[in-house]
Amino acid sequence: MQEIMQKNLANCKPTEFFKQTVRIKKAAEGWLKATKIVEILRRPPEREYKAIPAQATAEERAEIIRENAKIKQDLGMKNLSDIFDAAFVDNPEKTLEILALCCFVEPEHVDDYPIKFYLRAFYDMVNDPDIRDFFTSFTPLGQQNTVGA
Questions:
Q1: Residues in contact with 21: Cβ distance below 8 Å, sequence separation at least 6, in sequence order
Q2: Which of 26, 62, 134, 144 is the most exposed place for a label (fewest CB within 10 A)?
Q3: Which residues, at least 6 apart from 131, have a Cβ–Cβ distance to it below 8 Å?
Q4: pLDDT number for residue 74
């Protein structure tokens, strides 16, 4: 069986990259709104973090740090589960649209390729430091634009 050429944002030409990222941006705006991922990530933990009193002993400090780490871990796991549900259960079409566009596949042809095509491409993209840095560099801008939204 012949392997499918996995063209994606990590291995495309520079001119293709910029044109495609504009298309992805438009789809991502609708995806973010539909999935409410920004709101999920901004949720406070169910339990408040504990402050470390100035007079706390080393053992007390260590215990509070462990408790706060557990609160943070629990929130992270809940958020991850809720993001998974929002992306893959509640909005699979919008999620696949973005993944398809990242692979230069027109969204209406997303089912023309096996899931391994998209998973391999996703792996390539998130493990490419330049691609990852490009997209994460916009995170502060997105946070500024959604304040008060």
A1: 9
A2: 144
A3: 9, 10, 125
A4: 95
- Which residues contact residue 46 at a Cβ distance below 8 angstroms, ignoring those fewer than 6 apart? 74, 75, 78
**What's the domain count of the chain?**
1
Judge whether 23 lies within some domain: yes
Residue identified by tokens 């095509």 is: 117
Residues 18-43 have a mean pLDDT of 93
Give the count of beta carbons closer than 10 Å to the beta carbon of residue 10. 19
* Whole-Å CA distances, 133 to 2, 9, 111, 144: 32, 13, 29, 18
Q: Please say if the pLDDT value at position 143 is more than 60.
A: no
Which pTM value belongs to this model? 0.76
Tell me the H-state helices in the chain.
Answer: 14-35, 37-42, 58-84, 92-102, 115-126, 129-136, 139-146
Mark residue 148 as left, alpha or beta (left: phi above 0; alpha: psi -120 to 50; beta: remaining): left
Task: Check: CB of residue 100 under 8 Å from CB of residue 106.
Answer: yes
The answer to whether the CB of 57 falls within 8 A of the CB of 70 is no
Name the residue range of residue 133's domain: 14-146
On average, the pLDDT of the chain sits at 88
At residue 12, does pLDDT exceed 70?
yes
